[in-house]
Design a protein that fits this description.
about 475 residues; mainly alpha
Length: about 475
């Protein structure tokens, strides 16, 4: 049955035959003969013909072609959707067919993905090719390409990159992440700023939701020691007794406020560093992307770092110590001078390298493992796999950079603690190792890990709602 359908609909028929071909296909799909094809008919009809579609593909096709919003496609909408979609597919096929021989091989797929910033092995490129190749020749001609994607809303291999784009939408309250990257299409259509706005809002809600755990982490980083052990329960009791329930959100205001400027600076700096570091115009290799991301992160941190210091001071403040964030800034400047706003800056900047490097390396390894093991019909792993990969890689990055984060926080806080010595970074590390041992560098790691899963979950849900609200197509 499938071969007969394939012969009927996926041959090189154009012009006069095209309309009758679409009409025959429409008639087969319109099972209740009401003159339109809805989602259930499209799903059932394509399944009966043996045409595989991705999850949610039928709904996306109907939504894209349904101009009169009646939740179905009449024949004119149906044929227009297919014609427009086929034009996009033809353009993409030609762009992938580097040697213009009318066929795409695995090396051309590998090269195309590399141009888009996604390095895949020969085996992975072959797997992607096999999912499209019908006749087993290990090359894909136009008919095979059209057959695979005609009823798939994804028009090109950029979709594969979008599936796997290591997005900073998953906010875990850390500022060391590599910036988001956008395609040329996203930049020219203005989708990029909406995605950044959606990500910023997701981060704000996520950080607010996990603020008590974040405050506990900072509290334990600064005050916990071998002689003064602080448990989670004991720490929360202490905070509630000292300042009441609202005290659990101390420092959250400035933590949320710094998201927007940091995101904007990071994104703009990333675009500039990519241009400066790329060896070929328009093409950025993996190591160049990592360097550009790290430098962009360092640039953003340098600009907004005073807000980081104020966040730590406001998080640790006692009741009545500061009336507002402006009062906090004024008192720090008056008592300690402007240099105080950059205390802990060195360990913070050094921490970007292990965080970003391990984060990206773990993510790439998990991605390659999934592609080599499970990518049979599609390169789309689904949201749970992506969330899992992103969460695990970010957690590994945090684990590697955590000692530097602890040193940074203590240096930011030490002037506000009575009787505390003003130690430079090297002496502070030495003091902690002498008095508390190696694990002293990991004080507060438990509440830090406890907030990862709720933070990721909240940020993802809010991001999806914001995408809908801002009209970003999925």
């Amino acid at each position: 049955m499938y071969q007969a359908v394939r012969k009927l609909f996926f041959t090189d028929c154009h012009c006069a035959d095209e309309s009758s071909t679409y009409e025959t296909l429409f008639s087969k799909l319109d099972t209740n003969k009401d003159g339109k094809v809805d989602v259930s008919e499209l799903k059932a009809g394509l399944a009966a013909m043996g045409i595989q579609t991705g999850k949610g593909a039928a709904q996306k096709i109907i939504s894209s072609g349904d101009k009169d919003k009646d939740e179905g496609l009449d024949f004119s909408e149906f044929s227009k959707y297919l014609k427009d979609h086929e034009k996009k597919l033809r353009l993409t096929f030609k762009s992938l067919d580097k040697n213009n021989d009318g066929r795409i091989d695995f090396m051309e797929i590998k090269q195309s993905l590399a141009d888009l910033g996604m390095d895949v092995s020969k085996v992975e490129a072959e797997k992607i090719l096999q999912s499209i190749d019908v006749d087993g020749t290990m090359t894909v001609d136009w008919n095979e390409w059209r057959e695979h994607f005609l009823f798939n809303p994804a028009t090109n291999l950029q979709e594969i990159v979008r599936y796997w784009k290591h997005s900073t939408v998953l906010d875990i309250g850390d500022s060391l992440t590599i910036p988001d990257e956008f395609t040329e299409e996203e930049k020219t259509t203005g989708i990029w700023w909406r995605q950044l706005a959606a990500g910023a809002m997701a981060g704000a809600v996520s950080r607010t939701g996990t603020a008590p755990l974040d405050r506990m982490k900072v509290f334990m980083q600064v005050h916990s020691s071998k002689s003064n052990k602080i448990s989670l329960v004991g720490g929360f009791k202490q905070m509630l007794k000292e300042g009441g329930l609202t005290s659990l959100w101390r420092g959250n205001g400035i933590n949320v406020l710094k998201i927007a400027p940091e995101t904007a600076i990071k994104f703009m700096a990333y675009e500039q560093f990519k241009k400066m570091l790329s060896s070929e115009p328009g093409k950025v290799k993996t190591h160049e992307r990592f360097m550009a991301g790290s430098l962009a992160g360092a640039t953003a941190q340098t600009v907004i770092y005073p807000m980081e210091v104020m966040k730590t001071r406001l998080t640790l403040r006692k009741t009545g110590q500061y009336s507002s964030m402006f009062d906090c800034a004024k008192k720090i400047a008056r008592k300690e001078g402007l240099k105080a706003f950059y205390k802990g800056y060195v360990p913070n900047i050094i921490g970007i390298i292990p965080y970003a490097g391990i984060d990206l390396a773990v993510y790439e390894s998990l991605k390659n493992f999934w592609l080599s093991r499970y990518a049979k019909d599609s390169a789309n792993p689904g949201i749970l796999v992506l969330l899992g990969c992103g969460t695990l890689s970010s957690t590994c990055g945090q684990l590697a950079s955590y000692p530097l984060a602890l040193i940074r926080t203590r240096m930011q806080a030490q002037a506000s603690i009575e009787g505390a010595e003003q130690l430079p970074m090297n002496l502070m590390v030495k003091r902690i190792l002498e008095r508390e041992g190696f694990f002293g560098l990991y004080r507060g790691i438990l509440p830090n890990f406890m907030k990862v899963i709720p933070a990721v979950s909240i940020s993802y849900v809010v991001y999806e709602y914001m995408r809908d609200g801002l009209g970003i197509q999925k």
